[in-house]
Amino acid sequence: MNEKTALLIIDVQVGIVEAESGHVFNSEALLTNINQIISDARLREIPILYVQDLDVAPQESKEFQIHPAIAPLESDRIIHKVATDAFHGTNLHEELQAIGANHLVIVGCKTEYCVDTTCRRATTLGYDVTLVADAHSTTDNKVLKAEQIINHHNANLHGLDNIDKFIIVRKVEDSVMEPIHNNYR
Question: Listing from the earlier edge strand, what are the strands of the sheet with 48-53?
Fold first, then answer.
């Protein structure tokens, strides 16, 4: 099977990364790691799609904007969403189909909401997913620290499969743009 990769950057918006209630866990490393992945994608001419959550803040506000540390180029696609699932009510699936993508590298915020839901949904839509272990983040909740939430999701999502497609969790330094799913089929 010929693999076509796309990079999906979920909700890395100023109002999430630098929220007044507290920055996401390890925000500087998160942005550095995402930048490294973006650079690799650009070198390999891999399509980059940014997802913005319309519920974060008014669209004209600074908080709504994609974090300037990872700002998109004009050639990058931007998808607006209102649900935790980046596919629900958006044209994301159609955009990915149009470019022939069947492997998604996923990074972003927040781990237990939009990242988790989009990873799971992607597999049911026919995509293999590489979740980058050190390029998604969240904040503490009433029960768990952000680092625990991230580690929990990295452990639980690794190997999660739906029919023929599944999620592999890899670190930034693992050449995440190169799909390895077929090694496990």
Answer: 77-81, 48-53, 5-10, 103-109, 128-137, 165-170, 161-162
Backbone angles phi, psi at 91, to 5 degrees: -100, 20
Residue 98 C-beta-side C-alpha neighbours within 13 Å = 8
Tell whether pTM > 0.70: yes
Domains of the chain: 5-176 (3.40.50.850)
- CA 94 – CA 128 distance, rounded (Å): 16
Q: Report yes or no: 47 and 40 within 8 Å, Cβ to Cβ.
A: no
Give the Å distances, CA to CA, from 24 to 41, 61, 115, 147, 159. Answer: 24, 19, 14, 10, 25
Band of pLDDT at residue 2, cut at 50, 70 and 90? confident
Question: What does the pLDDT read at residue 1?
Answer: 55
> How far apart (Å, rounded) are the C-alpha atoms in residues 116 and 149?
11
